[in-house]
């Protein structure tokens, strides 16, 4: 169905049938890719991890998602589901702004933001702004100390995982740094 809808969209370019063809193709891409990306990211779609990885990356690409970044935020999401300020995957604030939701229904705000985020990550830049020796979270403006991930400004109350990184000629060594606020070491 996806190949058929894509072919229809390609053939219909320049005609009045292009809009419905692209809508059908986009709906099939989203419907097909979203559960595939999510379950493969959890490692539950297939029995083998290599097959989950193989399916996860193309499905993530179809939805403009980064599988590695998503796994980190999704662990936090499962720990703090719908806890404001802690659940990184709560997209819409409560109460929902219906106008903003309607505009974003067509990806007018989220798609450009996702593309900018992917490009920023590909260039090795974090999501937040680095201010002195702190990282500022773009979602809630809390700050974390870069050296150990401990919180330095509200509303943040728990630290981030921090890692000491050494780059040699042939090796990259990563060692976890215990968080100063909770004493936990990242998994």
Strands of the widest sheet, in order across it, are: 1-2-3-4
| CA-based gyration radius | 20 Å
Q: How much helix is in the residues?
A: 40-55%
Q: Count the E strands.
A: 6
Structural account:
With 187 residues, this protein is of the alpha+beta class. The chain has two domains: 1-90, no CATH class; 126-187, Rieske [2Fe-2S] iron-sulphur domain (Rieske Iron-sulfur Protein, 3-layer Sandwich), CATH 2.102.10. The protein is 44% helix and 13% strand. It contains six helices and six strands; from the N terminus they run ααααααββββββ. The strands form two sheets. Strands 1-2-3-4 form a four-stranded antiparallel sheet, with no helix packed on it. The radius of gyration is 20 Å and the shape is globular. The relative contact order is 0.06.
Characteristic key phrases:
187 residues; alpha+beta; 2 domains; 4-stranded antiparallel sheet; 6 helices; 6 strands; disordered C terminus
Spell out the blueprint of helices and strands:
Blueprint: H1 2-12, H2 18-42, H3 49-62, H4 67-79, H5 98-104, H6 110-122, E1 129-131, E2 134-136, E3 143-145, E4 151-153, E5 162-167, E6 172-177
Helix pairs in contact: 1-2, 2-3
Write a short abstract of this structure.
The protein is an alpha+beta fold and 187 residues long. It folds into two domains: 1-90, no CATH class; 126-187, 3-layer Sandwich (Rieske Iron-sulfur Protein), CATH 2.102.10. It contains six helices and six strands.
């Amino acid at each position: 169905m996806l190949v058929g809808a894509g072919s229809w969209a390609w053939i219909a370019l320049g005609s009045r049938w292009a809009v419905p063809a692209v809508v059908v193709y986009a709906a099939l891409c989203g419907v097909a890719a979203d559960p595939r990306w999510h379950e493969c990211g959890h490692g539950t779609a297939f029995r083998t991890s290599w097959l989950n990885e193989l399916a996860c990356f193309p499905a993530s690409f179809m939805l403009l998602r980064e599988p590695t970044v998503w796994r980190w935020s999704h662990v936090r999401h499962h720990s703090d589901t719908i806890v404001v300020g802690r659940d990184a995957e709560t997209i819409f604030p409560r109460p929902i702004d219906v106008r903003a939701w309607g505009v974003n229904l067509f990806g007018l705000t989220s798609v450009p933001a996702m593309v900018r985020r992917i490009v920023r990550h590909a260039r090795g830049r974090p999501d937040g702004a680095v201010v002195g020796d702190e990282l500022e979270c773009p979602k809630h403006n809390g700050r974390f100390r870069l050296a150990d991930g401990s919180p330095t400004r509200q509303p943040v109350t728990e630290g981030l995982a921090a890692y000491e990184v050494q780059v040699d000629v042939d090796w990259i060594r990563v060692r976890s740094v215990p968080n100063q606020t909770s004493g936990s070491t990242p998994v």
